[in-house]
Specification:
- By secondary structure, this protein is mainly β.
- It contains one helix and eight strands.
- The strands form three sheets. Strands 1-2-6 form a three-stranded antiparallel sheet. The protein has a three-stranded antiparallel sheet with strand order 3-5-4, with no helix packed on it. The protein has a two-stranded antiparallel ribbon with strand order 7-8.
- The longest helix has 6 residues.
- It is globular, with a radius of gyration of 15 Å.
- The N and C termini lie far apart (about 35 Å).
Length: about 110
């Protein structure tokens, strides 16, 4: 079933989201402090409150609007927009498919 329109009309003000910069701040917000990706610096990974919600754009999520093609990857459907789900954490690392305006994009963040 297609998602209800109200599930997709919740723009997120990402500038207002808390981004802890220290291990202590991270702990206060329930995050996990670690060295994520291939970088040499530590940062905070926070669980999102909207994970699993239906989305067509990452602006509708605290994290990213992820699109899963399946395993093995399946061909993209013909209908648009594509629908994804909001990520479990923010930020999202490694290579992943995400949605922007219902269109598929690809990004690697290390």
């Amino acid at each position: 079933p297609l998602p209800t329109p109200t599930a997709l009309t919740r723009p997120i003000n990402k500038a207002a989201l808390v981004w802890p910069k220290t291990q202590d701040e991270c702990a206060r917000f329930g995050g996990r402090w670690g060295n994520y990706g291939r970088g040499t610096f530590f940062q905070c990974e926070i669980s999102t409150s909207d994970w699993g919600s239906t989305c067509t754009d990452s602006n509708q999520c605290e994290g990213e609007c992820l699109y899963f093609r399946g395993n093995p990857p399946q061909p993209l459907p013909f209908f648009r927009p594509l629908y994804g789900t909001c990520s479990y954490t923010r930020p999202v690392f490694h290579c992943y498919d995400y949605l922007a305006g219902g269109e598929l994009k690809w990004l690697c963040v290390d």
